[in-house]
């Protein structure tokens, strides 16, 4: 079957993030003006609107803030993956991101569960995708 699952398309602002993922690094932005972290990458700080943003590497630790177990594939190419977990994860650096929880029985996922970032190679794509697994 042809792989029709969504693939990232790195652009000017996200290229650094996706290149980091291929190196096993979870990169995010921190504001030089107010010191707060933000994710995903943008041209200005979402907290204070400054443009003094620097890329940093997350340690990879975090906790599940919310999740949903997907039992019905949104498109046919995800049919072999169900059930899978879509989660919002709070990383230790102070931002939230959406990902799948891998290498875990979906019935075992809990809000507050400790997780760590991992990098998925999806269906032969050269682009690795940041996800999480139980810590
Ligand atoms: Zn700021």
Sketch the major β-sheet. 5 strands, antiparallel
Secondary structure: helix percent? under 10%
Bound molecules: zinc ion
Radius of gyration equals: 16 Å
- Coarse shape: globular
Q: Report the order of strands and helices.
A: HEEEEEEEE
Distance between the termini: 33 Å
Largest sheet strand order? 6-5-4-7-8
Please mark out the parts with pLDDT under 50 across 5 or more consecutive residues, or reply none: none
Assign the structural class, choosing from mainly alpha, mainly beta, alpha/beta, alpha+beta, or little secondary structure.
mainly beta
Give the averaged pLDDT, no decimals: 93
Q: How many distinct folded domains?
A: 1
Q: Tell me how many strands there are.
A: 8
The amount of beta strand, in percent, is 35-45%
Total of DSSP H or I helical runs spanning 4+ residues: 1
Key words describing this protein structure:
binds zinc ion, globular, mainly beta, three-stranded antiparallel beta sheet, five-stranded antiparallel beta sheet, 135 residues
Description:
- Strands 6-5-4-7-8 form a five-stranded antiparallel β-sheet. Strands 2-1-3 form a three-stranded antiparallel β-sheet.
- With 135 residues, it is mainly beta.
- It has one helix at 15-22, and strands at 27-31, 37-38, 53-57, 61-70, 84-91, 95-101, 114-121, 128-134.
- It is globular and about 45 Å long.
- It has one domain.
- 19% of the residues are buried.
- The mean pLDDT is 93.
- It starts with 14 loop residues before the first helix and ends with a strand.
- 6% of the residues lie in helices and 39% in strands.
- The protein contains one helix and eight strands; from the N terminus they run H-E-E-E-E-E-E-E-E.
- Bound molecules: zinc ion (ZN).
- Zinc ion binds at residues 31, 33-34, 36, 45, 47-48, 50.
